[in-house]
Amino acid sequence: MFVISALGTMKDEQDQLLASFPGFMATIETKFADFDTHVISVNTDDAWRGLTCESAELCGTYGNCGPYGMDYVCGSYADTVFKCDRTRGAGLLYNAGPYATNHVCELEGGHRYMIEPDPDDFECIARVGTFGDDPPLADTLVAAVSDDLNGPAGCNAGFLRPDALLVFVFIMDNDDDESVLSPKQVHDAVVKAKGGDESAIVGLAIIPQPLEGEPVPDCVYDDAPWPCTSARSSKPSSTTAKAISAPITTTSFSARPPTS
Question: Is 195 left (phi over 0), alpha (psi -120 to 50) or beta?
Fold first, then answer.
């Protein structure tokens, strides 16, 4: 489960994520060849971001979503955007706006998640663009694993499986100042979603922090402190970091095969 910020500062991070996906999936296919993997990218907003494209300044002036969203088709949302597209925590199928996919993703089985990992499909659901609000990532995670969204009629129906490992990935470049749930509430909700089994949860948070010690080869670092205009922070996201702290494991990837 990828929980990705769509703030205006996130273009580079999204590009890096997409570039890393083939290697990520190669690792899964090599080391976990018999595993059944579901992949979802969830909405961190409680709205569909493409509505901003429909403004007089964009569709009214350019006939699309502006110079960085030229593939967007004005007016197309009337037949393609539904309740789940406006629901926080629901799997994304139509990312719209600058640097976004700007078309509906057609995933196998009609799900809002991938059941056959494919780089093109992943780019479609993970290129979330930069028209998002300041995201409550921790609250989004709780919504994404809730009974409401994972029940038989829920937006994410079938994504969670009782005997599968849940790996969630936070990607943001500023503090999570918008989540209202406490770290304990986040922890308890995610563990409950996995039937109380803490060993069935792995969390990875890719969040801002200054360089400490010597730089690692091939890694890219931002200079700290970051300028205020970039909406970045020089410390890790407090809510996010605490929400995935022990006893939930924090690592890059781990898995066990589901039976479903």
Answer: left
- Structural tokens at position 254: 């781990």
φ, ψ at 138 (rounded to 5°) = -65, -45
Element (H, E) at 168: strand 166-171
Q: How many CA atoms lie within 13 A of 19 on its CB side?
A: 6
Residue whose structure tokens are 């990520």: 24
pTM tops 0.90: no
Helical H segments across the chain, by residue range:
11-31, 59-62, 77-80, 119-126, 137-144, 147-150, 183-193, 238-243
Q: Which of 183, 174, 184, 141 is nearest to 160 (CA)?
A: 141
Q: If pLDDT is split at 50, 70 and 90, which confidence band does 62 have?
A: very high
* Sign of the alpha-carbon dihedral angle for 43, 191, 136, 254: negative
Coil, helix or strand for 54?
Answer: helix
Dihedral in degrees, nearest 10, Cα atoms 151, 38, 20, 216:
80
Residue 222 clears pLDDT 90, i.e. is over it: no
pLDDT of residue 152: 96
Residue pair 154/187 in contact (Cβ under 8 Å)? The answer is: no
pLDDT of residue 238: 34
SS3 (DSSP) at 175: coil
SS3 234: coil
